[in-house]
Design brief:
Belongs to the complex I 75 kDa subunit family. Its main location: membrane. This protein is of the alpha/beta class. It folds into four domains: 2-99, Ubiquitin-like (UB roll); 107-215, 2-Layer Sandwich (Alpha-Beta Plaits); 226-364 and 484-623, Rossmann fold (3-Layer(aba) Sandwich); 365-483 and 629-654, Dimethylsulfoxide Reductase, domain 2 (3-Layer(aba) Sandwich). It has a seven-stranded mixed beta sheet with strand order 14-13-26-25-24-15-16. The protein has a five-stranded mixed beta sheet with strand order 2-1-5-3-4, with helices on both faces. A hairpin with a 2-residue loop joins β21 (473-474) and β22. The N and C termini lie far apart (58 Å).
């Protein structure tokens, strides 16, 4: 640690700290445009100038000079840095004057107005006037995709977007062309960006040069009602802030959580917004003569009650989809128990995960933050870039630090980092286990594509063997990690929402003639054969609604308060932002009313009572933002599971990143992104 004086305040900071970091440690505010904590240092905006006593007789860029480079004061006194001296004040005024020479006076029509760094810093540190009267330089706008709008005349060349795409996203989509006055930020050929994290550049841009295109001219920042919540479009559980106006969700932004998503979110998380109000189910429907017709709640309940009365418990089943909250899954489980129906399942894709193997058998045990502690990585049947782009960025972050070997068994893909390709199927994994030697801390990531096969349990056992033999399980380290794609999956497995003794799993329930009555809680990724009477509780007119005999309109994740457990086992709370449309109701309330209709009323009348009952049975769900770790011994039991793997190549769990759930499939923005993505894949194949 090194002692340093900042505006007369003495602080102890590591020698590798920059002066900017040291100043912030001392409580001094240092303005900046180009500097960002998660990007490399560019040092090109010069807004963070400070005065160093005993240093050069000129302002110093605090982001580009480290504490170890300072000379001590007289008689060994600590080095001194000033952030408010006349020299610094004059220097900052000069920098802002230069920044504003060509910056247009767009504030009244700029979407960044009200949350613009340039606006704020010009007010706080600027001189309030300019000596320049020349015509402003104009730059042509660029097309860089359907998610980010460009107003490049406003660009101040901070290069945050360039560094983000090169360092975090790993696609190098953006760069600079030209020199001096002719320098421009672009995608070179003005093509659409290809990263699944491209929307983050609009968060990083300190001016209004890069803006979210779908929200263009929709609202001003001070009009928003801001609500902290959790993303459910994948299983990472990214922390988000949902901005609404009235009864409409306008935009979704990331919240900082270094343990989960840092400050990034995927483009699907960010721009699925328009899908929340398109193709919505806002009233009950009943199928008559092969066609669905609008009905009252009473008519819908009467149809269900009549069918339930004529159906034996053994011929009744329940399915849970990918977006369901823990509370409604628990309510559905209680209802099935009271009906005596053993056929319940949350694994609509057929993955061979089972709570009977222990909680560690289906968690991302290494944790997301733990990726940075790993010494090597083995990916089995997964494409993290498509299944969880933000987690993939964390893997890339570790890879950039060096001394991190990545090996892949499965489909070849551009993961934004180099890897050794071992082969396409389980036989390649078996050879790797036999031929390799242990490393320090091995991280084994098992994807859903490897587990949704008939031999999924054998692949899971092989992955556990790899973890055990090659350094994946040791004192203080459990690197066996399952990467889920469904936000509801871990919570449902925690509740034991799998078939009871003699019960059918999801794949068998969906077969013709297997059951007579199926309660479908938002399961839209499975095709149910004709024959069964299907009661669909969901939000959109998607696959599940098309197959349903009775539709009960539910609430989307922004319209209810609910618990979700992410892929690492972290319990998180999603908050209600707006109310459901029309006659739609929260899912737990629908199930409570339904239980009374079928003659098995559940023992709660409010969400608070339901949560009290839930927590009493599963205490770990009461610890928000906490991970209840699995037992390392479970991996040993899993490794000994007797099963034989086939030789077929692993097939990716996600074929189209942008269309993985009903909300995304209802989104016009996601449809445009999907068309671009599929077009690129077709072009690459040709």
């Amino acid at each position: 640690m090194t002692k340093i004086l900042v505006d007369g305040v003495e602080v102890d900071v590591p020698a590798e700290f920059t002066l900017l970091q040291a100043c912030e440690e001392a409580g001094a505010e240092v303005p900046r445009f180009c500097y960002h904590e998660r990007l490399s240092i560019a040092g090109n905006c010069r807004m963070c100038l400070v005065e160093v006593k005993g240093g050069p007789p000129k302002p110093t860029a605090s982001c580009a000079m480290s504490v170890r480079d300072l000379r001590p004061g007289p008689n060994g006194a600590p080095p001194e840095v000033l952030t408010k001296s006349p020299m610094v004040k004059k220097a900052r005024e000069g920098v802002l004057e230069f920044q504003l020479i060509n910056h247009p006076l767009d504030c009244p029509i700029c979407d960044q107005g009200g949350e613009c760094d340039l606006q704020d810093q010009a007010l706080a540190y600027g001189a309030g006037k300019s000596r320049y009267t020349e015509d402003k330089h104009a730059v042509e706008n660029k097309y860089i995709g359907p998610l980010v709008k460009t107003e490049m005349t406003r660009c101040i060349h901070c290069t945050r977007c360039v560094r983000f795409t090169a360092e975090v996203a790993g696609t190098s989509d953006m760069g600079a062309i030209g020199r001096g006055e002719d320098m421009e930020i672009t995608t070179y050929l003005q093509t659409a960006m290809v990263s699944e994290l491209q929307g983050c550049v609009s968060d990083l841009c300190p001016v209004g040069a890069l803006l979210p295109k779908p929200q263009n001219f929709r609202a001003r920042p001070w009009e928003y009602q801001k609500t902290d919540s959790i993303d459910v479009t994948d299983a990472l559980g990214s922390n988000i802030r949902v901005d609404s106006r009235g009864r409409e969700v306008i935009r979704i932004l990331p919240r900082i959580n270094d343990l989960v998503n840092e400050e990034w979110i995927s483009d699907k998380t960010r721009q699925v917004v328009d899908g929340l109000k398109t193709q919505r189910l806002d009233r009950p429907y009943v199928r008559e003569n092969g066609r669905l017709r609008p009905a009252s709640w009473q008519e819908a309940f009467e149809a269900i009650a009549a069918k339930r009365k004529a159906t034996a418990p053994a011929r009744t089943g329940a399915l849970v989809g990918d977006l369901a909250a823990v509370e409604e899954i628990y309510a559905l489980k209680l209802l099935m128990q009271q009906l005596g129906a053993p056929n319940v399942d949350c694994r609509q894709d057929g993955v061979k995960l089972d709570p009977a193997f222990g909680r560690a058998s289906y968690l991302f045990n290494a944790t997301v933050a733990g990726i940075e502690k790993a010494d090597a990585l083995l990916i089995v049947g997964s494409n993290p870039r498509k299944e969880s782009p933000v987690l993939n960025a964390r893997i890339r972050k570790r890879w950039l630090k060096g001394d991190f070997k990545v090996s892949l068994v499965g489909e070849k893909a551009d993961l934004t980092y180099d890897y050794d390709y071992l082969g396409a199927g389980p036989d390649s994994l078996l050879r790797f286990i036999q031929d390799s030697k242990p490393v320090g801390k091995l991280l084994v990531i098992v994807g859903q594509g490897a587990l949704s096969r008939p031999d999924g349990d054998a692949v899971l056992a092989l992955a556990a063997q790899a973890a055990q033999k090659l350094g994946g399980v040791s004192e203080g380290w459990n690197g066996f990690s399952v990467l889920h794609t469904a936000a509801a999956r871990v919570g449902a497995l925690d509740l034991g929402f799998t078939p009871a003794a003699g019960g059918l799993d999801a794949q068998n329930m969906a077969k013709a003639g297997a059951l007579d009555l199926i309660f479908n809680l938002g399961a839209d990724e499975i095709d149910i054969a004709p024959g069964a009477f299907v009661v669909y509780i969901g939000t959109h007119g998607d696959r599940g609604a098309h197959r349903a005999d009775v539709i009960l309109p539910g609430a989307a994740y922004t319209e209810k308060s609910g618990l979700y457990v992410n892929t690492e086992g972290r319990v998180q709370l999603a908050s209600r932002v707006v109310f459901p449309p029309g006659e739609a109701r929260e899912d737990w309330a629908i199930l409570r009313a339904l239980s009374a209709v079928v003659g098995q009323p559940l023992a709660f009348d409010s969400l608070a009572e339901l949560r009290k009952k839930l927590v009493a049975e599963h205490p770990h769900l009461a610890r928000i933002d906490h991970i209840e770790a699995g037992q390392g011994s479970d991996i040993g039991k899993l490794a000994n599971h007797p099963a034989v793997a086939m030789k077929d190549a692993f097939v990716p769990a996600i074929s189209d990143f942008y269309l993985t759930n009903p909300i995304a499939r209802a989104s016009a923005v996601m449809a445009e992104c999907s068309a671009l993505s599929q077009g690129r894949l077709k072009q690459a194949a040709e």
